[in-house]
Amino acid sequence: MLAAVLAGLAHPGAPAQGLDPALLQRIDAFVEREREASRIPGIALAIVDAEGASHVRGFGDDGRGRPIDADTPFPIGSLTKSFTALLVRQASDAGALDVDAPVQRHLPWFRVADEQASRRITLRQLLNQTSGLSRGDGMRALLHDGNHDGASSVEELARGLAELPLQHAPGERYEYSNLNFVLLGAVLEQAMGQPWAALVRERILDPLRMTHSDTDPASARLAGMTRLHRMEFGFPFAEQPRLPPGLAPTGGLVASAHDMASYLRLMIDAGTVDGRRLVSAHSIEQMLAPASPPASARLLGAGFTFRYGEGWFVGPFGAAADARWHLGNLPSFVAWMVLLPATRQAFALLINASTGLPLDDATAVMSRLPLGVANLLRGQPPPTGPSLPQAYRRFNAAAALSLGIFAAAAWLAARARRGLWAWLLPAATLVLFAALSRATGLGPTILIAMAPDLALVLALALGFAGLPLMLRALRFAGRRPARRSLR
Question: Coil, strand or helix: which one is 126?
Fold first, then answer.
């Protein structure tokens, strides 16, 4: 099956739809319609096929009044994982790495809390997201929190995992974690004797002539990177997210749509660029192979079933029954890349705004855009759904209603003769919030960082719930001196 997929991607004899101008006009109209409806400042799109045709263009502006074009740099977040996986495969082709070797062969100091598990984790398990490292710990590292606070390099972050418990036994099951690719970055740096940034520049960006790509966000901003925007209560706010340097191998790249077209064509051409081989066809095959146990997840309001390859998800994508794809996002941007083997096409979609609100209606437009492009390329209609402003109107109304209910409950509890209600209301609220946190996996730190609008609503609700108890405490404190003076 895998050989057939690669044959469809790489060999000119396979049937190709090409890039039909009328179809491209429908895709452009769909993207622009969704962008305007959701008040997204800017989007860049690149579509390529195996015949060398490409369609690369921008929509809207960069938040500074400059129009988005094919060369506008965007952060691509976790699409970077595919680049790190490609570096590993290049090193494997050269005999410098064995992907089935344990991590400790290259990093003798590597440890997690379980000493036996530390010896068993392999490079392949890191590539396939089956090492047992947890998604939550990867998120905490992203937020510069916990044991990883202050990590200034890939090696420092990797060494900081020594006390970290695994979520599962190595190789047992899939769980996406940024830490897997941090460790791969540390392995690459040790085996190749160069920083990850230098490796990706020398071995991928320069050979592919990705001239509007960068590993340093500060340099990318000087080179014209788009401004990013976080939606809060339905209004865009410019934001400059900070990524700890140690997380560069998992999400540190910046690239333009034109540059992403070059990268996707490398995948379609099974590792060659301009007739020169950058990586073996076998390595591309391994990167795109479904390797992890089956899994499912809701990502930006859409449900996906998949298996993980090496920096690529493998599974259905909209109307495409078989696709290779990946998502990169933070609350202020979204990036997608998708390979469609059946039509020998690929596309990248870069968006300079997003929201961290964990509600499907709010995030759905960010997945509806790539799903719609995939559907149109497959001859099917794009999905429909509420715009971002519509979703936020519902959220804002629900937030106002909830705060009104909490305020009314607080007023009643404050007037009640029995002080029991003043204790019950905040206690019940804390239990409710703890249950919601457990169900969603969003602790206070993550919630504040990812969805400050929702965090503010919850904080106000908790404040209302605790107000009757606070008033009783103040009344009690005010009475005590008076009673003493009477004595």
Answer: helix
Retrieve residue 122's tokens. 């392999």
Q: Which has the closest alpha carbon to 419: 472, 464, 478?
A: 472
Q: What is the pLDDT of residue 15?
A: 35
Q: Which residues of the chain have pLDDT under 70?
A: 1-18, 144-151, 417-422, 438-442, 472-487
This prediction has a pTM of 0.88
Beta strands of 233-319 (E only): which ranges?
235-239, 254-255, 272-273, 276-277, 295-299, 302-308, 313-317
Give whole-number Cα distances, 296 to 97, 317, 446, in Å: 31, 12, 22
Report residue 48 as tokens.
Answer: 């390529």
> 């995030």: which residue's tokens?
363
CB 227 within 8 A of CB 219: no
Query: Phi then psi for 162, rounded to 5 degrees?
Result: -60, -30
DSSP 418: S
**Smallest Cα–Cα separation from 333: which of 41, 31, 138, 45?**
41
What sign results for the dihedral spanned by CA atoms 22, 27, 29, 32?
negative
Q: How high is the pLDDT of residue 430?
A: 76
How far is it, in rounded angstroms, from Cα 303 to Cα 476?
Answer: 53
- CA–CA gap between residue 156 and residue 149 (Å, rounded): 10
What are the backbone angles phi and psi of residue 330, rounded to the nearest 5°? -135, 175
Supply 87's token pair: 């570096």
Q: Is 31 within 8 Å of 55 (Cβ atoms)?
A: no
Q: Output the CA–CA distances (angstroms, integers) from residue 146 to 143, 241, 292, 446, in the order listed.
A: 9, 18, 28, 11
Beta strands in 341-379 (DSSP E): 345-351, 353-354
Helix axes 178-192, 135-142, angle to 10 degrees: 70
Closest to 112 (Cα-Cα) out of 161, 184, 159, 160:
161
Task: Report d(CA 405, CA 73) in Å as an integer.
Answer: 46
pLDDT value at residue 458: 85
Tokens 């979204």 map to which residue?
Answer: 334
